[in-house]
Design goal:
single chain, mainly alpha, Hemerythrin-like_sf, transport
Amino acid sequence: MAEIETHPEVPPLAWSAELATGDACMDETHQEFVTQLAALRALPPQAQLEPYRALIAHTEAHFAREERWMVAVGFAPDNCHARHHREILDMMRAVERHYLDGDTDIIARMAAALAEWFPTHAQTMDAGLAQHMRTVGFDSRTERLADPSRVRPATMTGCGSVHCR
């Protein structure tokens, strides 16, 4: 695994209006992620493994839900947003293995990298998904479309952000 590059001192990530996507359900999940990440970063390396595993489990559920939403609103199952999720989870799992192999500082480095990564992901890919869900009338709490005829299945391969079509 390539070493995770991050700035030596990454500032703490705190929830703010800048991270909001406009979808209440998505934003609640993101707030939980930010809270768990901040708590993890406050721990010494020897106390990070179990909270890190909890963060992985939260992230797996978070990404799985977003990917269900993507398919429901017309994204292809293997769109770039879903691929990005897989890459992040693969990296998070690899970090756990490296920690268990004795690199006890790797979780702290990964947590810093996640704190750098998350704002851009939320403001681009997730905000794009949230906007598309609003456009097609998708309710993220019930996971239902107000009018299913507004969505053509598996037509969008991009992430939904303005940077990817």
